[in-house]
Amino acid sequence: MIFVAAYAIIGAVFAVAFLIGGVNRLDPAAKASGLAFRVIVFPGCVALWPLLAVKWLRGEVIK
Amino acid sequence: MSVQYQAVQWNPQKKAYDLTLLACVVLYLGLFVGVGAVIHPNATAETLLIRGLGTGAFLLLHVILSIGPLCRLDTRFLPLLYNRRHLGVTMFLLALAHGAFSLIQFHALGNVNPLESLFTSNTRYDSLAQFPFQQLGFFALLILFLMAATSHDFWLRILGAQVWKRLHMIVYAVYALLLAHVSLGALQSEKSLLLALVMGAGLVVICGLHVAAALHEQPVDSPRGAGEEFVAVARFDSIPDKRAIVITLGNERVAVFRHDNKVSALSNVCRHQGGPLGEGRIVDGCITCPWHGYQYLPGTGASPPPFTEKVATFATKVVDGQVYVCPRAKS
Known about the structure:
heterodimer; A: mainly alpha; 75% helix; globular; B: alpha+beta; Rieske Iron-sulfur Protein; 2 domains; three-stranded antiparallel β-sheet; 15% strand
């Protein structure tokens, strides 16, 4: 339970940071996308934050 | 096709689709609770709502699982496919409400954390009548959350089409979990056979549709062209203008389009969400996917600028009215 809670909290914090800055670098199509898009993908970012963190750290760009 | 993401790409058809869906959900819940209150006067409103949400979600899952094979059997069902993800997200929300209310009703207001109570209050894994069926529902809900959370096009690009599709095919595991959840849960306390018969009928329909679709697609899936340089696929005149036929070369489905008195062959799989390009048509000189309108130039398989999607193309030739396609994609 503690592990799940920790995962979710870290995920939420990461997702906020990622959706403010990282997502634009990872996927250029997100640059001009608005707040509603970021709200929609927020839950997925919380759930899959390790995958996104690796891609962000590696400086990957989705073409 | 877009160079920026929107939360939902609304259009009049999508709005009508979603409004109809919402009306059906509200109507179903209203009828279920209303009729339930008459048939079971001792049942509380919370209990009826929990059952309504659960049965509504399960019913919607049957609709979702039927759409794919129905579209294979009859293309008139395709409009249901275009917004199937909206059905999926709605199903998740109904299941979430069912799970949340159930957790509160059966595990809250005690001195143990409700989620902890869910997993520790009943550990009778050796009993069918007393099996901790709620845990099965929890795991199904977890998978549904992952699918709903990744239903946007953004995740299709982040995960890649193959991983994304495999993730969303786990819906069949969800179906199995929910069959067990209901069989080991609500069915155990049902005196009437009606629920069991309805569930059995649902399973027969789902399995039957999938088998029928597989049999229907078998001729297209028969691979051709192993070891040959060019494979004869059809007479030129048999392909409708600005339309395609679909064949299988090796492991891949290939769409062979006829246009401007020549033919072009390209992968049948749209780069967007795997839609069947061969069921589309050529509009304004571009092959247009019937699912979401993604377009590709027939000669190169590339999307028109500024879009960058590209599908594999195959060399073709027409000799004496016979169309030949090379089984190996152009590099």
